[in-house]
Design a protein that fits this description.
two-stranded antiparallel ribbon, 38% helix, 300 residues, globular, eight-stranded parallel beta barrel
């Protein structure tokens, strides 16, 4: 299978001051999908401009025609399945069926406390995701849904006419633990990973590859338990969080080497961050565009 190359555009610029042009350029460069982060604020960008994911993707849908659009990732930290489903159906309609929902358990960052609550424990995050994803699946595929759950409820929630994409827009489930991998196997059209976070600071690229190999093995086991062929599940690597860090974007050759090693593991899509000066995602824009236009052909 041909490797897909995608990008993630952080929503830190006003639409009139570079926000719009990045999405237009992403389509011109031939990226398969352009994602954005669904956070209320994030890391070092907390004290600067940061815009909402759904409005940003809606605007991006209006200035592009072929480019797929999505979140990497949405989480239950500040989302409810009922309201999220309505926004996603609207967004899928506006885009003409070009939306992918990246979804995960969330973390303990700013999103976890912005609504005034204490951060959830890892167990509670996993518990909530395990209820969130199946309910969202129903909300996007059924005209009317009633559900009484431990964390989320819906009472005759209507979502007519449903998604343009049938039976619904695809889920890309971010997971590394056993419960999340089971969710990916049962409800996902794709699986997302950033690698093993324990290796980011002091691990090696070789250790990272082995850790990812182990994750893919566990994903295959989860698919087998669900009675599903793992070959039918796309595998997405969001780069920038492995020990390689920004090195793959230093040259076309460096990226092709990096992508080739991960393609051999079974990844079907690699996502690179749109360059942001003076940040962890700083990169030479000319090299970035060369990678976007030429790398996939070298990996075919």
């Amino acid at each position: 299978m041909t490797l897909r190359l995608s990008t993630v555009i952080l929503p830190y610029r006003r639409w009139s001051e570079g926000g719009r042009s990045a999405w237009v350029r992403a389509e011109q460069l031939g990226f398969h999908t352009a994602y954005t982060y669904d956070h209320l604020s994030w890391r070092s960008f907390r004290d600067g401009p940061w815009f909402g994911a759904i409005p940003t993707l809606t605007a991006a849908a209006g200035v592009t025609e072929r480019l797929r659009l999505g979140t990497l990732v949405t989480s239950p930290n500040f989302r409810h399945p009922v309201t999220l489903a309505k926004e996603l159906i609207s967004l899928d309609d506006i885009s003409g069926g070009r939306i992918t929902l990246g979804i995960g358990a969330g973390g303990t960052g700013f999103d976890a406390t912005a609504l005034g609550q204490e951060p959830w424990s890892p167990r509670e995050r996993a518990d909530r995701l395990a209820e969130f994803v199946p309910l969202l699946d129903r909300l996007l595929t059924e005209d009317a849904v009633t559900h009484e759950g431990r964390f989320y409820s819906a009472h005759e929630a209507r979502n007519i006419p449903g998604c343009v994409q049938r039976p619904r827009l695809p889920f890309a489930v971010a997971a590394t633990g056993p419960r999340g991998l089971r969710l990916a196997a049962r409800h996902g059209q794709a699986w997302v990973t950033t690698g093993d976070p324990k290796l980011y600071e002091s691990g090696t690229p070789e250790q990272s590859v082995e850790a990812l190999r182990g994750q893919i093995t566990k994903l295959s086991e989860a698919c087998a338990d669900a009675g599903r062929d793992p070959a039918g599940l796309e595998r997405i690597l969001l780069t920038g969080f492995t020990p390689d860090r920004a090195r793959p974007l230093q040259s076309l050759d460096a990226f092709v080497d990096f992508a080739g090693r991960h393609q051999e593991l079974g990844f079907t899509e690699i996502v690179i961050h749109w360059p942001i000066p003076d940040s962890d995602f700083a990169a030479d824009e000319k090299v970035f565009e060369q990678i976007a236009m030429e790398a996939v052909a070298q990996l075919s």
